[in-house]
Specification:
Helix 3 packs antiparallel against helix 9, helix 4 crosses helix 7 and helix 5 runs antiparallel to helix 6. It is built from nine helices and no strands. The radius of gyration is 32 Å and the shape is elongated. 78% of the residues lie in helices and 0% in strands. With 297 residues, it is an all-alpha fold.
Length: 297
C-alpha cells in the first residue's frame, strides 16, 4: 500500500459516492457517444457510395476509332500550319523579308497559330487514347509511350509562345521607338526560329514515343509487324533530324535533305498507324487483348 495520501484522496474518502450507479451511467453515456458517430459515418458512407456512379472507360474499339479520327485531323492541321503557312512566311536568310511577310499575312498566321493550338490539345487526347488502345500489351510500356508524347506536346505549346512573340514584334508599333527596323526584323526572325528549335526538341520525344509504340506492336501482335517496322522507322528519322539539328553547325544548308528524310517515313508510318486505328475502331477488339495486362512491362 502506498504510504502517501494526497488531499484529493482525502476528499474522495470523506465524500464517497454511490458505488455503481454513476459508473454504470457514465459507461452508458460513453457507449452512446462512441457509437453515435460510427452510425452516422456508416450511413453517410453508404449514402455517398450509393449516389456515385463510376464513369466507364472507353473500350478498345471506341478508343481506337477516336484516336484514328484525331490522328487524321492532326495530319491536316499540321500540314496547313507548318508547310502551307510557317515554311512559306519564314525565310531564315532574309530577316526583313520575313517581317514583311508576317505583317502582310498576319491573319493567315493567326489561323495557323490556332491550328497549332488545336494540335496541342488533340495531342494530349491522342496520348490518352493510344494508352487505352495499347494498354493490353503492357501497362508500363503504354504509359511510357504516352508520357513521351505528352512531353513532346508540352514543347509544342512552348514553341507556340515564340510565334506570338514574333507576331507582336513584327506587327505592333510599340517597339518602333525602342528598336530600329533592322533590329526589329532580326528579333522577329529569331522568335520564329526559336519556335522551330523548341519544336525540334519536342520532336525528339515524339520519335521516342513512336519507337516505344513500334516495339509494342512488334512484340505483342496487336497489329501487323510491318506497321511496327514502319512506325519504328518514322521514330528513328525524327531522332536523326533532331540530332542533326543539334550537332551540325551548317544544318540550314542540308535542311531540305533532312526534311525529305523525315517526311516520307513519317507520313508512311503515321498514316499506316492512322488507318489501322480507324479499322480497329470498326471491328471488335481481339479477344486475347480485351483486358489490360498490368504486369507486363
Amino acid at each position: 500500500m502506498n504510504a502517501f495520501i494526497s488531499p484529493h484522496s482525502i476528499i474522495a474518502i470523506r465524500t464517497p459516492e454511490p458505488p455503481h450507479h454513476h459508473d454504470q451511467h457514465a459507461r452508458r453515456e460513453d457507449t452512446t457517444m462512441s457509437t453515435a458517430p460510427t452510425t452516422t459515418s456508416t450511413s453517410t458512407s453508404t449514402t455517398t457510395a450509393s449516389t456515385i456512379t463510376p464513369t466507364p472507360e472507353l473500350d478498345h474499339r471506341r478508343a481506337a476509332w477516336y484516336a484514328g479520327l484525331a490522328y487524321a485531323t492532326l495530319f491536316i492541321l499540321a500540314f496547313f500550319a507548318n508547310f502551307a503557312v510557317r515554311e512559306r512566311v519564314v525565310d531564315l536568310d532574309d530577316a526583313a523579308g520575313t517581317m514583311a511577310n508576317v505583317v502582310a499575312d498576319e491573319q493567315l498566321i493567326r489561323i495557323a497559330m490556332l491550328a497549332f493550338l488545336v494540335i496541342f490539345v488533340l495531342d494530349i487526347a491522342v496520348s490518352w487514347l493510344l494508352h487505352l488502345v495499347f494498354r493490353p500489351t503492357g501497362e508500363r510500356r503504354s504509359l511510357l509511350a504516352a508520357w513521351f508524347r505528352i512531353g513532346y506536346t508540352v514543347f509544342l505549346g512552348m514553341a507556340l509562345v515564340f510565334m506570338f512573340v514574333g507576331l507582336r514584334l513584327a506587327d505592333t508599333d510599340e517597339f518602333t521607338g525602342v528598336l530600329g527596323d533592322d533590329e526589329r526584323a532580326a528579333q522577329t526572325l529569331l522568335a520564329f526560329d526559336a519556335f522551330n528549335a523548341t519544336w525540334m526538341v519536342g520532336l525528339t520525344l515524339f520519335g521516342l514515343h513512336l519507337i516505344v509504340l513500334a516495339r509494342m506492336i512488334w512484340t505483342s501482335g496487336i497489329a501487323p509487324k510491318w506497321i511496327g517496322a514502319i512506325v519504328a522507322l518514322a521514330g528513328s528519322v525524327y531522332l536523326i533530324d533532331s540530332i542533326g539539328y543539334t550537332v551540325l553547325t551548317d544544318y540550314d544548308r542540308y535542311s531540305n535533305v533532312f526534311t525529305m528524310i523525315v517526311l516520307l517515313p513519317a507520313i508512311a508510318g503515321e498514316a499506316a498507324l492512322t488507318f489501322w486505328l480507324l479499322r480497329q475502331g470498326r471491328t471488335a477488339a481481339p479477344a486475347a487483348l480485351e483486358q489490360p495486362v498490368a504486369a507486363v512491362a
